[in-house]
Design brief:
Two copies of one chain form a homodimer. Chain A is α/β, with parallel strands linked by helices. Chain A has seven helices and five strands, in the order E-H-E-H-E-H-E-H-H-E-H-H.
């Protein structure tokens, strides 16, 4: 995996890259930073039966506002497998942090998303995939950690034409080692308007955060720690 | 990766496993062999915009006939990315074998399929995934080779609750080192009726093979080499 050392990013020099874009603060910041570094960014979002579908609308607006070369939204029925509070209405989103891997973890989510990004990268002849994974101020999901991302990269290089034909696929996670406060600062520096991003696990139909889920808590603390005004919209 | 040494398979003893089932001869044989070895098999198929949608109907019938515990068909819009003769009507399926990776290769297909299998395995609390990949009489796709499958397994063990909590995810490819003739013999031995499977890259609406694509050629040669009658249905 590349980018563990944080920014600055390698210059894209116009090269194509696929960028996973959820509509949240971290992926928006990743996209903005990649565009600023000169990558031609092909943003990829998923409609995977998540509760907070409003994040897909946020992703559409962000892809346009931040200068993505293209944006695709792929429908993906992860809800058919059940098992997560983010896709299964029968499982409540917890309001207090628990021990271990939380119920908001969607099974194999980043693996599925990165796999689809790899498929698009192959058809674009792109060799770089950006993901806003963060392993500092995060919810403890196993598929956000640097060793996971490195293993995905190793697999991708055996899975594809590019790998077989001698090019190198790179999974770039420029935020992976940043504290949330650093991400907030980077977002502002790259021109991301935090109010247009949706991080909440159970945002309302207007895209406003609940203020109590793990994602909202981590984000709010990031603004406090960064000493910046939090323009996030919360439901009353 | 487990199962590189070919059969016999490790006894399932009633344990759950996800089995990728395309409707072709190899995946049907993998499912039949896994059921026979005592695995509770959760068969998984994809409707991914492939030309030969008739294979999904074959998969439904095979899952039932071969004793799968359950069968899911997940819609997956790989065609949105284009780039393969199997999903893009603008690219012709070749009638003669070429050099290198063929145009029938679907970008990152096995990576996407295994990722979805991993997602289902997590929600089932299953730790085993079967795939009918074969690296002997095959079309030269990079994602059928043992080193690729081993890399996917390594990644999967870092991606999931099971890996984090100490269980071991295994990608089992029992056919990977078998010649097509051996697969044909195993299919018959396990009770698979070859006439009910669809391997052709451009089968007609009745599920009959074209007889000229790479997949049809490999399969037909397998029957000849095995010295068994080929009951495959071909279009006139």
């Amino acid at each position: 995996m590349s980018g563990q050392g944080g920014l600055p990013l390698e210059a894209g020099s116009g090269r194509r890259a696929v960028v996973l874009l959820s509509g949240g603060l971290d992926s928006a910041t990743t996209l903005a930073a990649a565009v600023r570094a000169g990558w031609a960014c092909y943003a990829l979002s998923f409609d995977y039966g998540q509760r907070h579908g409003v994040e897909i609308e946020a992703a559409r607006r962000l892809a346009s506002a931040l200068g993505a070369a293209a944006h695709r939204v792929v429908r993906l029925d992860l809800a058919v497998f059940g098992g997560s509070a983010l896709t299964d209405p029968a499982i409540a989103v917890p309001e207090t942090p628990g021990e271990g891997i939380p119920v908001t973890y969607v099974p194999a989510r980043n693996t599925v998303f990165l796999s689809m990004a790899l498929a698009w990268a192959e058809t674009l002849d792109a060799h770089d995939i950006f993901i806003g994974a963060n392993a500092v101020d995060y919810s403890g999901y196993p598929d956000c950690r640097p060793d996971y991302l490195a293993a995905f990269e190793a697999m991708a290089n055996l899975a594809t034409r590019a790998g077989v034909e001698g090019s190198r696929i790179r999974i770039r996670a420029p935020l992976v080692d940043l504290a949330k406060a650093e991400i907030v600062r980077l977002a502002i520096e790259c021109g991301v308007d935090p109010a247009t991003t949706v991080s909440c696990y159970q945002a309302d139909a207007a895209g406003r955060g609940c203020g109590v889920c793990d994602s909202c808590r981590l984000r709010a603390r990031g603004f406090v720690d960064a000493g910046l005004p939090d323009t996030t919209r919360y439901a009353p």
